[in-house]
Known about the structure:
By secondary structure, this protein is α+β, with helices and mostly antiparallel strands. It has one domain: Chorismate synthase AroC (Chorismate synthase, AroC fold, 4-Layer Sandwich), CATH 3.60.150. The protein contains eleven helices and 18 strands. The chain has helices spanning about 20-25, 50-60, 105-110, 120-130, 145-160, 190-195, 205-220, 250-260, 280, 355-380, 385-390, and strands at about 5, 10-15, 35-40, 75-80, 80-85, 85, 90-95, 165-175, 175-180, 230-235, 265-270, 285-290, 290-295, 305, 305-310, 315-320, 330-335, 340. The termini are far apart. About 45% of the residues are buried. The mean pLDDT is about 90. Flavin mononucleotide binds next to α10.
Amino acid sequence: MLGNTFGRVFQITTCGESYGYHASKDSGGVGGSLFCIVNGVPPGMKLDVAQIQRELDKRRPGQSKLDSPRKETDQVEVVSGLLEGLTTGAPVGLLIRNVDTQDIHVEQYRQVKDVVRPAHAELNFFYKYGEHGDWCGAGRASGRETVGRVAGGAVAKQILAREGVEVLAHVIESHGIKGRSVSAGTMDFQEVKANYRANDLNCCDLPMAEKMIADLLKVREAGDTAGGAIEIIARGVPAGLGEPVFDKLKATIAHGLMSIGAVAALEFGAGWDAASALGSQWNDQPFLQQGKVRFRTNHCGGFLGGMSNGEDLVMRLAVKPTPTISKEQDTVDMMTLEQKKLAAITRRDITICPRIYPVAESMVAVCVLDALYLARGWHGVARIDPKWQELAQPRHQGQYTK
Ligand SMILES: Cc1cc2nc3c(=O)[nH]c(=O)nc-3n(C[C@H](O)[C@H](O)[C@H](O)COP(=O)(O)O)c2cc1C
């Protein structure tokens, strides 16, 4: 399998599967694990392992009635890159063991291993890996793959915190029920911070969250699952990150976010509203505030020419309904090539939204940090007049109004 590393200077490399069951059984080992190697961590940093654990706890399953009942502890072990509590500049290795890989669940997957589950990645796994693909819990296509990303993203967040950058995401829609959002100009960043993780869904519009949760419980009773949307905001990002052509920050963030399973669509700022807008409505007009260039609106989501413009980066993701559902659906047995019916009994989330937001935060953090490394490298050599760098520092007081 190719493509398990993301980032150019600051890089995360992940491995590990949903169950890692065969590997552990076959080798008499301790059990399948997930792993992240983080490249580009500066030396002399006091790595806050408790903060990595807090990030992992955000996406851990089995915490609420909306999650998969799978009981994983997701305890992180730092296995390299530290000496006496400080980073050495060497790769940081993060290990997270799968602990809830019970035989009964493995058997449930074994019984339908040749029958592709609708909307899962399995069909393509047959095309790419033949009969040797991992059939247990979707292998690398499982939501558990994202554990490594969150662990690596937690390290990126710690480095970004030193630069005054923070990244937060929250749920803004579930099964057609919409909450207020920064991108719609109906919520500001302070409210996102104040209400962050205030409910099981992590929807910061608290009254709407109650409606969404009540609806989701009905969806579960019907044996179904629901889609939704999340919004990600990165505050404190200096202007000019990203390159003007292929390596736009917008493009690398799109790469990072679209690489997360179940993401169906991505918008920057007001996104699709651009299609129906006039230039006079859409253009974010610059003005001067205390000697810095600000914008009256943020329809572009903090990007100009694909590079950061010093305002908040704002992205929205549409998240598809969880593929595994209990209702009977058509499918195909890939070994016998027979038409089959399948009604799944394996564990699943009713909605992926409250599980995916920490993953999205991590991918944006990795992209911004990677771009920051490249920009600092550029400025270190190019000798641009420092006044331009001073001007590019972030400015995020105040609120955008529509
Ligand atoms: C954090 C996370 C949790 C997920 N949980 C589940 C789940 O419980 N059940 C399920 O069927 N799919 C789940 N998925 C979705 C599948 O991994 C994904 O839809 C599938 O691999 C197909 O990929 P695609 O949706 O990008 O086409 C989860 C994805 C993520 C990122």
